[in-house]
Specification:
The chain has 266 residues and is mainly beta. The protein is built from four helices and 13 strands.
């Protein structure tokens, strides 16, 4: 079947935990914020909004079910089928399994906390197991952890810089630059100026026409086990829509056996 690697959206739920402050950013003239919040204020708001560390740590596992679809202009290959459906499992401290059913193909991504594997099975029964390379691991590792980036890195000032207020869709958001020392998969994150949830992440610098090299937008937030989670995710490559993910169900603290995160040898 060749050396096929199906690139799945590793950052599907990268903003697991809301980074919310009590209330909104206060506005000055013309609706601009009087002062951008500090990293420490964002982090404290993150803890306060989620019951402190005990509240955040109370989420031990997640099971997420949803659908993926291509942009309208790229649906030729998808037109004969019902699109792709997936189930994502995450378990502390940092394990993940994602099963995706495409028309004629099933892929299984497994991250055991150290290495990432992908199991690919086609409709004609061909199977391939791939040990994913180091270039993919940062995104896989970031997505495997139950907790948002601010919680994982405690809003360290050697990891983040609050830069500006920008528009994300129709809403205002605070752009935060992620410094190389953090070792995070994305260069920028945007926090909603209203609820301080991560509403966007991006890799690379914005270009006048092409946009960021890679950009992910999060929307349709709902409360799950007291935590606000996005239920729609849009992916863009160089400014062009590449994938839309719609989440139908999120369950917290479901029983997940450790065997789910061990790849089976064939």
């Amino acid at each position: 079947m060749g050396h096929l690697v199906v690139r799945l959206p590793w950052s599907l739920l990268a903003c697991l935990v809301a980074v919310a402050l009590p209330g909104k950013v206060q506005s000055g003239e013309n609706g601009a914020p009087a002062e951008l919040p500090t990293l420490r204020a964002l982090y404290q708001g993150h803890l306060d909004a989620n019951g402190g560390r005990l509240g955040i740590e109370s989420i031990q596992s997640l099971r997420i079910k949803g659908r993926m679809r291509l942009p309208q202009a790229n649906q030729v290959e998808q037109s004969k089928g019902a699109g792709s459906v997936f189930t994502l499992y995450r378990k502390r401290p940092n394990r993940m399994r994602m099963v995706t059913e495409h028309p004629g193909l099933v892929t299984v991504l497994i991250y055991d906390g150290h290495q990432a594997y992908q199991h690919i099975e086609s409709s004609d029964g061909q199977i391939e197991v791939i040990d994913l390379d180091a270039g993919v691991l940062p995104e896989v590792r970031a997505d495997s952890q139950i907790g948002g980036v601010f919680y994982q890195y405690a809003a360290r000032d050697d990891y983040f810089v609050v830069e500006s207020l920008e528009s994300v869709g129709e809403a205002s958001a605070i752009r935060v630059r992620v410094l190389p020392a953090a070792g995070y998969a994305y260069d920028y994150i945007w926090l909603s100026a209203e609820h301080f949830q991560i509403v966007q992440q991006a890799i690379g610098e914005s270009q006048a026409k092409g946009g960021y090299l890679k950009r992910v937008r999060y929307d349709d937030f709902k409360s799950v086990h007291g935590v606000w989670l996005p239920h729609s995710v849009d992916y863009y490559q160089a400014g062009k829509a590449s994938l839309r993910v719609e989440i139908d169900q999120v369950q917290a603290n479901v029983g997940l056996f450790d065997s789910l995160f061990i790849i089976e040898e064939n």
